Amino acid sequence: MAVIRDVMASFELLQPASIADAQKLLQQHGEDAWVMAGGMDTFDWLKDRIRKPKVVVDLSGIEELKGIRTSSDGIEIGATTTLTEVVKHPVIREKYSLLVEAAEVVASPQIRNQGTIGGNVSQDARCWYYRAGWPCYRAGGNICYADTPTGRNREHAILHAERCVAVNPSDSAPALIALDAKFVLRTPRGERIVDAEDYFIGPDIDITRLHILKPGDLLTAIRIPSAWAGSRFYFEKIRDRNVWDFPLLNVASAMQVSGTTIDRIRIAVNGAAARPLRLRAVEDAVRGKPATAATGEMAGKLAVQGAIPLQFNAYKIPLMRNLVKRAIGGVEEARWAS
Amino acid sequence: MSTSDNERQYGPQYKLIGKNYVTADLYAKVTGKSKYAEDFRAEGMLFCKLLLSPVPHGRVKRIDASEALAMPGVRAILTADDLPAPADTVTDNGTVIKASKWGERGLTMEPVYQGEPILAVAAVDELTAAEAVERIHIDFERLPFVVDPLDTLRPGGPNPRTDGNVWVTPPGGQPAVQELKWTDADFAETKYGRLPMGKTPDEWSYGDLDAGFKNAALVLDETFVTPDVSHQTLETRSAMAYWQNGKVYLHSGTQSTAQTRTAIARWLNMDADKIVFISEYTGGGFGSKVTGGVSMIIAALLSKKVNAPVMMRISREEETFIGRARPGFQGRMKVGFSKEGRILALDMFVISDNGPYDAQGDAPTSGHMVSLLYQPQAMRWRGVTALTNTPPRSAQSSPGGLQGITITEPIIAKAARKLGVDQVAIRYINCPEGKAPYGPPVQGKLQHATSAFLKDALQRGAEQFKWQERIARSPKRMGSKVRGVGVALSCYVGGTIGFDGLLVITPEGRIQFQSGIGNLGTESVIDVHRAGAEVLGVPWEKCDVVWGDTSKHFPYTCVSGGSQTTHAMTRAAYAVAMDAKQKLQEIAAKSLGGNPEDYEVANERVFRKGSGSGITFAQAAQRAIELGGKYDGHEAPADVNKMTKASIAALAGQGLVAAARDNYPRDGNTHSYVASFAEIEVDVETGKYYIVDFLAYADVGTVIHPRALGGQVLGRSILGIGHAIGQKWVFDPHYGEMVSKRFYQNRPPTILDVPVDMQWGALDIPDPETPVGARGIGEPPVGGACASILNALSDALGDEIFQRAPVNADTILTSLEAGRPMQHPLMAHI
To answer: Which positions ≥6 away from B661 have C-beta within 8 Å?
Structure first.
């Protein structure tokens, strides 16, 4: 059978108006259903005819999934709130600016206008073999094409690779982990709340998914507690182009300091492994230490312990080391007169 | 747009030349009313989709389309067996160029790259056509394939075509595919990260190379790899076709309206007068649509087969495969410098990755451009145009020029640092000037340029960029950020001669210019006629430009490739305006007495010098129709091309018909030049860098339309910058498949990757060898822009970081970490 790309196959489009209706539809159609939020990840798969679901459940008409609600304990962001809405929200800008910094460098303005926060954390891997429909481990096959002697793997994993070397491409995910966000799930068995870092899984758990959602499950909201509001934040994304590019690597941290001493810190990186990595060893090592370049150096070295480069991605090791260093010790601003 | 666009007054002696104005196509473009090929619809129109080869090289053994053809709504399948035999080409001087047996035909039974179209399906809609494609079964016999030129040149390496791996052009003959293998001894160089230099089919030299190296104070020998870069035009090469009364009507994008009809005639092996080609707007070409693309005949032939209009919309992925790309080079260059930095000897060796089809001129052109641009006292050029099983290449803005400049410039930058010579100064002493000589030698003699004022452009550019201030600034490093500045020279061919102009002065008194130029976004389709209007002294409001449809009768026009249009067609516009002027004077003399030379042309009138008695253009046009003969197009000049003669005959009787061939002399070959300047800021902890400032200063002769010129200078600079900052192909050589197929994966530059206030300037010194003084500009900025970024990077980071373009965080970080270049020095497509 010949292969053709770039022509979307036909499917039945279902547009529920409530979470309950969406759940009913998902239960009814089981594995035949595809859940779509902003469509930014979905349309690639559908246009390439690599995924051919019988039905697409479009969440964009469900009002309960939209909008940002604030309370004294923090903030709740509906899963289909667009990244642009997140970036523009005054309370997020004031108290949780880490998320603003991360969300405003996702892709391009057009994609942020359409793409949702739920979609950004739930998007699939961007390994170019996998996305082009090669029958790899992640696609249910029994080979990783990126991890061969001729594999082209500049953008792939340096940590926790297990057969598959794809990485999680989300920019908002490490920021949400650093903010200790909780993800609210609606499953056939009821509501379930998980820590942000537990939403993501590596190939050791399931090689075909980057997150814990199973058929029938929905991510409905993301809650950010006030515990880290107004902390010292650091976010940096390194990409090839200045717009419309996935991260080669990114880092997000939230830090609370007394004087110069680090009291509490949460730090995560993405683009290094199949899931965004919370760097617990770094958090433990720097707690109680001064937030200086020297501590940062130490943290950076610790962060990349155990990293194994592939043929074309060795740069990710110094990059991750330096990004972690900067998250803790800061970066010296350069200001030339002209 | 740069501020210099508003501040500078070009062409003070002119009314139209050098002035900004609104082109007639602009409102349609910005309001979305312009119709591109894909926007047309015809009654009963079918859609077609392509089946692309899954293998990089193979033979189709069997096609089973029975299941597809049985589907409701599927109308027909077109395979290579339905294509007409390729026709020979007859050039203007009657030379017959035999159709190449290795040529690309649009569909094939022996695919030579993964993604090559095998067949097309016509159906009532695209979804049906796509589903039909999926139900077609093809058995392939797999054949050896290769994606890296070095791998095919190795002893025992696979051949990309069954009969060879390199293009060889015998003297005076046509290119042929032959086999070339180098020796293990040649490949020993790879151990040291240097390009092996085995025997090459092509070579030329001049001067005493050995003496040059012997006398040199510094000799550098460097290997450098340049990227393969897709053209990525925003409008893909979609085409729509239908047949009526034995004629085929074809809509598609092109760079060159008049000459695309000729190309279609060759591809379809039928007479040009049975072809109507419509292309009012084209969404970018950059060399990939010089005469459209051979794929457009698929729509035409399917339409004939099913007797219904057929629309073929080319998707982005298909465009990546069939949409053309620049050949990447693996190059090596040895340069000997005097202590002042003058280039005494230059030995250049290049391998051009040609893809599987027609021989591209990039390799030989790279030697020509390097010779002209740096004026080495002695030079040798050797080159291989190697075939690979990768998508077909074509000219891309500055073909061969970009690659040659990108290989040479970092060596000059390194030499300046080693010799302690300023970067602007070292370029100044090697800069071409006046009727500058260049290789290859023809019959033992070097060729020469019509003119070169690049030294002036370099100096003025350095002043405007505040070069001295920037290099004196300290510190270069603050925190993790390092600044670097770079300058580069650039040149390319800037014009051809010998084409025709055609215009009609209507009985309403309007001047109607017939424009066979493509509307490819450069505005030359309209701009060049301002030179004709200037000669006639008519206000632009009284002029109309007819373009975009060959049934509207165009003169013999150059293709818009190689930056020739502004030069070639302002000459033709000047010639035809002079013919119109002469005819106006003759008509006035016939009507009012006296001799033609007693009359002058101004204020839309032709009148007796002094007295003022005369007739209007409208009256003269009416009189031309009455006089007939040569005045209203019933007779054509003997020396114009047959395409022009047919158009004159078709326009006869509509008014005063003026037509003329550009017979103006020219001493030398026309080139344009640019000096490019860039400042970058690198973060050495992340490898990320930003372009802080950029300036391109152009020597393009007389400025015709400043705003369009600025658009070209900066737009093409961005194209060049893309090669420095990230655009490339990535292939998995084991499978022979491109993994960077998508826009976001092969990373063309965006507007946010360049400074918001990019600057440009132009000398506005007329070229002495053309009546209007104008030269072309499309290609010249490209190589300089790319090289100025690379030179700024090595200024910031040192010479031991990169040996190939593009340069990204990965290269910078791993090399800084190791203290030496760490990327593979030779491997293609990584």
So the answer is: B498, B499, B500, B572, B575, B637, B639, B640, B641, B644
CA distance B296 to B319: 13
pLDDT for position B346 = 98
pLDDT given at position B610: 86
Edge-first strand listing for the sheet containing B117-123: B74-79, B117-123, B46-52, B310-312, B239-244, B247-252, B275-278
Helix (H, G, I), strand (E, B) or coil at A184: strand
Task: Report residue B636 as tokens.
Answer: 């054509």
> Which residue in A330, A245, A108, A213 sits closest to B809, CA to CA?
A245
For residue B3, pLDDT beyond 50: no
Radius of gyration (Cα) for chain A, nearest Å? 20
> Where residue A22 sits, what CATH number does that domain have?
3.30.43.10
Distance CA A240, CA B27 (A): 35
Q: Taking the CA atoms of chain B, what radius of gyration do you get in angstroms?
A: 27
Contact list in B for residue A315 (CB cut-off 8 A) is 687, 809-814, 817
Q: Which CATH number fits domain B498-661: 3.60.110.10, 3.30.365.10, 3.90.1150.10, 3.20.20.80?
A: 3.30.365.10
Mutate to test the interface with B, among A128, A239, A316 (most CBs of B within 10 A): A128
As a whole number of angstroms, the distance between CA B229 and CA B292 comes to 19
Identify from B50, B79, B464, B688 which residue to disrupt to test chain A contact, counting A C-beta atoms within 10 A and taking the largest count.
B688
Torsion of CA B179, B183, B186, B190, to 10 degrees: 90
Q: Is CATH 3.90.1170.50 what the domain over B38-143+237-312 is classified as, yes or no?
A: yes
Calpha distance B211→B214 (Å, rounded)? 5
Task: Give the full edge-to-edge strand order of the sheet including A68-71.
Answer: A68-71, A74-78, A218-225, A182-187, A190-195
CA pseudo-torsion sign B160, B161, B165, B169: negative
CATH domain B399-493+668-818 topology: Aldehyde Oxidoreductase; domain 4 (3.30.365)
Yes or no, beta carbons of B315 and A5 under 8 Å apart: yes
Q: Is the dihedral of CA B804, B810, B813, B819 positive or negative?
A: negative
pLDDT single digits (tens) B764-774: 999 999 999 99
Residues of chain A neighbouring B724 (CB-CB closer than 8 A): none
Nearest CB neighbour to B686, from listed A148, A238, A241: A238
Mutate to test the interface with B, among A7, A129, A155, A316 (most CBs of B within 10 A): A7
Which of the 8 DSSP states describes residue B735? Answer: T
Nearest CA in chain A to B682: A334
Residue B6 has pLDDT above 80, yes or no: no
Q: Searching chain A, which residue's CA lies closest to the CA of residue B753?
A: A242
Q: What pLDDT score was predicted for residue B5?
A: 46
Query: Tens of pLDDT along B799-808?
Result: 999 999 999 9
Nearest to B528 by CA among B558, B551, B507, B550: B558
Q: Do domains B399-493+668-818 and B498-661 have the same CATH topology?
A: yes
Tokens 């999926």, residue located: B134
Three-state secondary-structure class, residue A228:
helix
Q: Where are the domains of chain B?
A: 38-143+237-312, 399-493+668-818, 498-661
Residue A163 lies in a domain: no
Range of the domain at A47: 12-61
Nearest residue in A to B728, CA atom: A240
Half-sphere exposure of B657 (CA within 13 A, CB side): 28
Number of domains in chain A: 1
CB contact under 8 A, B732 and A151: yes
Query: Which is nearest to B253 in space by CA: B290, B226, B214, B218?
Result: B290
Give the global pTM. 0.97
